[in-house]
Each structure stands twice: as C-alpha cells, then as structure tokens.
C-alpha cells in the first residue's frame, strides 16, 4: 500500500531551494494544482529578497461543513501555532484564494536543520488548514478531555463538495466516510477493496490499528446528517479512533491519513485498473501469438522429373 506524503512535493522543493540561496534575490511566480482541487500560488520578488508569499485555495465545501471566513473552523489558530513569528497571515487573502501567508526569510531559525524543518511544515499547509477541525477534536481525545463538540455530528471537508463526518465521544472518536465514485467501474472495485480493507484489520500485526467497518447503508452514527450527504454508491467506512492512536507524533499522521483516505482508496483503485488492463493486454498478445502459430504456411509448388509440377500443403 502507498501512503500519500503530507508535504506538497513541488512546494517543498521550491522552499528548500530558496533557503539554500538566502543571499540571492530570486524571482518566483508559480501556480500549482494538487489532488482534490487544492491550488497554490507561490511568489517571490527580486526587489524583496527577504519575503515570499504563498496562497492556497481549498476545495469547495458542501453545505454541512462548518467554515469560518472561507476556511475551516480553527485553521487560523492552527497556522499561527504551527509556524510561529516567521510566517504571517495576510488579510485579506489573494483574490481567488482562501488563505495567503507571508514568509519573512529574515526571521528563519539560524540552524539549518531547523530551517529545513520549518519549510517542510510550510509545504504541509494543506494538511494544517483542512485538518484543523479534526486535529482539534483528536487533541482533546489524546488529552482524555471532553471536547466541546462531544456527541455532536461534525462535517469536515476533504474533497470538492464532499465531507466526512466526525462524532466525538469522551473515550473515542468515530470517523465515517461516505464513499462516492463517478465511474461505475471504480465504484465496484472500491467496494471490493473496502471489504478486503475491513478484513485486513483482523490479520496478525494489525490488532492495534483503529477498528474499521464497511456497510452499504449509513451507520447509526450518521443519524441527523442531511440526506444529500448520505448518497454514497460505494457504501460507508467507519473508523474508531482511540487515545492510543493519537499519542505524541501519531496525531499528525492520523489526521493526514484520515483527511486523505478517499484519495488513498481512489489511488489504489486506479492502480488496480491499470494492473488488470496490463494483464488483459498481455493475455491478448499471448492468444494472438498462439493463433499466428496455428495458421498454415503458404502453399509451395514442387516440380517432378517429367517437368510437371504439383502443389504440396505443408
């Protein structure tokens, strides 16, 4: 299985290249697009060698998702806590984007390793902004403190016009994903994949992983969710997150894995289709070769001693 990395790779490469040459004035202007309709715009001017600007546009939220000022609830606080004084939020954001950050390169940590670590965190902007509501709930779970949203259904956007649901409880958090695929073939493969995904949890070595359930019908935890959010052609996947799953450094990994779960499934569905197409093409080539070998060779004309000829089928 392949897990998607949290840092946006191109953003990370640009930032690491920039801090490698802090003494130079470099002109940058890149527009980038990531999966699930996340857009970036990163800029640097040769007239201001100590400043970079990074903007992010998020996928359109569904009606049930709670947004504040065009971004998920708690995202501003999460950005300020994560990045510190070297990075500021520009208000208002760049036109067409939901959040714009100003990077002051003169305030970067003096140690090179610390600078690299900070730039990698900046490349994780998507995870910090979109995962802010879920991270807040799981922080309360890790601290074994009752979350303010306890026992209340909460929608977290993760794809354009789509969300997954978080149900906080005192001793656990239940995450429910309505799985939707536009292509009918993808839906069939995803359903099979998710059923096997649920069975894999019972294998040895995975006993401590979050409990996973798949159902073709909405689970009881989604009682009260809007009807349009329960329209899923590949069923519903539920994870039960316990305090041990979000201890220490596990928190960020858990948040990112949950926020990109649909992309993870979609990636493996596409890989499965590609693998099956490759196998089918190879099988067809093998059958064609067998048919070619079965064809009779061209008729050959043979002359006898008297000068007459006859045709022999070989």
Main β sheet profile? 5 strands, antiparallel
Strand order of the largest sheet: 1-2-3-7-6
DSSP helix fraction: 25-40%
Number of strands: 14
CATH topology of the largest domain: Yope Regulator, Chain: A
Task: Calculate the terminal CA-CA distance, rounded to whole Å.
Answer: 54 Å
Q: What CATH architecture label of the largest domain applies? A: 2-Layer Sandwich
Quaternary state of the chains: single chain
**Overall radius of gyration:** 28 Å
Family: Belongs to the ARPC2 family.
Organism: Adiantum capillus-veneris
Keywords: Actin-binding, Cytoplasm, Cytoskeleton
Main location: cytoplasm
Secondary structure elements and pairings:
Blueprint: H1 9-20, E1 28-34, E2 38-45, E3 48-57, E4 67-68, E5 71-72, H2 75-83, E6 87-90, E7 99-104, H3 112-123, H4 125-130, H5 132-142, E8 154-159, E9 162-168, E10 173-178, H6 184-200, E11 211-215, E12 236-241, H7 250-259, H8 261-294, E13 300-303, E14 309-312
Antiparallel strand pairs: 1-2, 2-3, 3-7, 4-5, 6-7, 8-9, 9-10, 10-12, 11-12, 13-14
What would you say this structure looks like, in words?
- Functions as actin-binding component of the Arp2/3 complex which is involved in regulation of actin polymerization and together with an activating nucleation-promoting factor (NPF) mediates the formation of branched actin networks.
- Component of the Arp2/3 complex.
- It is found in: Cytoplasm, Cytoskeleton.
- This protein has 314 residues and is of the alpha+beta class.
- It has two domains: 9-130, Yope Regulator, Chain: A (2-Layer Sandwich); 144-269, Yope Regulator, Chain: A (2-Layer Sandwich), CATH 3.30.1460.20.
- Helix content is 35%, strand content 25%.
- The chain is built from eight helices and 14 strands.
- The protein has helices at residues 9-20, 75-83, 112-123, 125-130, 132-142, 184-200, 250-259, 261-294; strands at 28-34, 38-45, 48-57, 67-68, 71-72, 87-90, 99-104, 154-159, 162-168, 173-178, 211-215, 236-241, 300-303, 309-312.
- The strands form four sheets. It has a five-stranded antiparallel β-sheet with strand order 1-2-3-7-6, with helices on one face. The chain has a five-stranded antiparallel β-sheet with strand order 8-9-10-12-11, covered by helices on one side. Strands 4-5 form a two-stranded antiparallel ribbon.
- A hairpin with a 2-residue loop joins strand 8 and strand 9.
- Helix 1 packs antiparallel against helix 3.
- The chain is globular and about 95 Å long.
- The relative contact order is 0.12.
């Amino acid at each position: 299985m392949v897990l998607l990395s949290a840092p946006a790779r191109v953003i990370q490469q640009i930032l690491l290249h920039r801090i490698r040459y802090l003494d130079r004035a470099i002109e940058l202007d890149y527009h980038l697009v990531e999966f699930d309709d996340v857009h970036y715009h990163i800029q640097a001017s040769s007239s201001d060698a100590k400043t970079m600007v990074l903007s992010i546009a998020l996928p359109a939220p569904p009606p049930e998702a709670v947004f504040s000022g065009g971004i998920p609830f708690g995202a501003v606080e999460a950005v300020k806590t994560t990045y510190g004084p070297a990075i500021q939020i520009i208000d208002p954001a760049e036109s067409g984007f939901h959040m714009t950050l100003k990077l002051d390169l003169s305030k970067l940590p003096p140690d090179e390793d610390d600078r690299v670590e900070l730039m990698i965190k900046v490349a994780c902007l998507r995870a910090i902004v979109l995962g802010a509501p879920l991270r807040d709930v799981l922080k309360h779970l890790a601290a074994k403190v009752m979350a303010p949203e306890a026992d209340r259904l909460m929608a977290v956007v993760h794809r354009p016009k789509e969300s997954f649901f978080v149900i906080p409880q005192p001793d656990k958090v239940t995450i429910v994903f309505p799985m939707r695929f536009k292509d009918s073939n993808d839906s069939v493969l995803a359903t099979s994949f998710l059923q096997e995904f649920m069975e894999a949890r019972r294998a040895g070595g995975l006993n401590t992983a979050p409990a996973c359930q798949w159902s073709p019908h909405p689970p009881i935890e989604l009682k009260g969710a809007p009807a349009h959010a329960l329209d899923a052609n590949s069923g519903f996947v539920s994870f039960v997150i316990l305090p041990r799953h979000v201890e220490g450094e596990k928190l960020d990994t858990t948040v990112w894995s949950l926020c990109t779960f649909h992309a993870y499934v979609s990636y493996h569905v596409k890989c499965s289709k590609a693998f099956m197409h490759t196998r089918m093409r190879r099988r067809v080539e093998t059958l064609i070769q067998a048919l070619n070998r079965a064809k009779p060779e061209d008729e050959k004309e043979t002359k006898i001693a008297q000068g007459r000829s006859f045709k022999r089928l070989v």
